[in-house]
Task: structure prediction
Amino acid sequence: MEVKTYRASSLQAALEQVRTELGPDASVLHTREVKHGMLRWIAGRQIEVTASATIKVPSRFPTSHAHTAPTTTKPLPPADYDDFRAKYRAALKRSDEHSESLVEHLSLEADRAKSNELHQSLFELFTKLIDAEVSEEVAREMLERVRSGLSSADLNDRMLVNSRVSRLLEDELKCCGPIRVTPGIRRIVSLVGPTGVGKTTTIAKLAANFHLREKQRVGLITVDTYRIAAVDQLRTYADIIDLPMEVVSTPREMRTAIARLSGLDLILMDTAGRSPQDDLRIQELKAMLAEARPDEVHVVLSSVASTASMRQATERFADVGATSLLLTKLDETTGLGNILPVLRNSKLPISYITNGQNVPEDIASADSRKLARAILRTESD
Ligand SMILES: Nc1nc2c(ncn2[C@@H]2O[C@H](COP(=O)(O)OP(=O)(O)O)[C@@H](O)[C@H]2O)c(=O)[nH]1
Ligand SMILES: [Mg+2]
Result:
């Protein structure tokens, strides 16, 4: 009988090692965070997963998974499992001398877990959340909130537990609805954010939708001056959609440009991507926006980015007067859970999501319910 230990900086990474080395059917026997020792000092946070390819603990891991073909092995959320875990740990200690009794012990515990729907319903949700890139910390906190708000009988009701978690997610995924354009009242909307996240493409999508579908009078301003190619990119769209476009490089030019476009219903303003670390460029952008006085400033974030880089970008661009977040590249992301800490931190609502490179169709007004369902991968999606 073989029991192996894996360590990594996150649970996901450790489980990946387990899957790679022991295969998709491996059983996770135990997980813990390493609190002491040399490795922790050198490598930072360490999660330890004890797993085996030979010991089978069938009921602990769901065998079917809607979106991942192999059986994934994930540890259990805490609280209810402490007792269960303590027994595993004790059993593992004895494993060298008493391999037979360990197998028996594990099977017995597994049967007990299987008969307990409470374990299963919360565990499945925990797995879903982790798979959707929700951090362990946030996933645990959410499940704990659901658990403490329901009676143990209610916790057996899978649908109810699911809808509670979904509602918690919806509360976190605040959305603000689309840009509200009133004919005759000029609205200025600016998109800001790091380079390459999809600002120009998104401006083109918005422009085409408001002009061609909603028949609004739309104009474009680009502040993208130090990358000539970027100006050309927006000009191409302006020509195709047949929209007036102004290029500005100073606050004074901004004033003139806005005056020229004054008869329109909607002015969409594209800006050069700024590295959140580049203070000078951020200050320039701030000066430019101070002149334009936009009604809305959407911080564009690629949903493929890490939580840390999204959070940094949001903090820096909040400084230029951000009013919402706009999430791009949902078609490329493995999960949307990474946005949750960014939303908590910034307290900004989500305006739009984009899910592909096609102009104008790959954009939608953000919807809390749909985003929550996307995270939980509810069947109908
Ligand atoms: N897959 C995917 N690609 C996108 C999406 N939005 C934009 N892109 C691509 O991302 C790249 C950078 O876009 P661009 O609009 O130039 O970014 P900007 O530098 O922020 O203006 C281009 O190749 C776009 O086609 C999206 O929703 N999904
Ligand atoms: Mg651009």
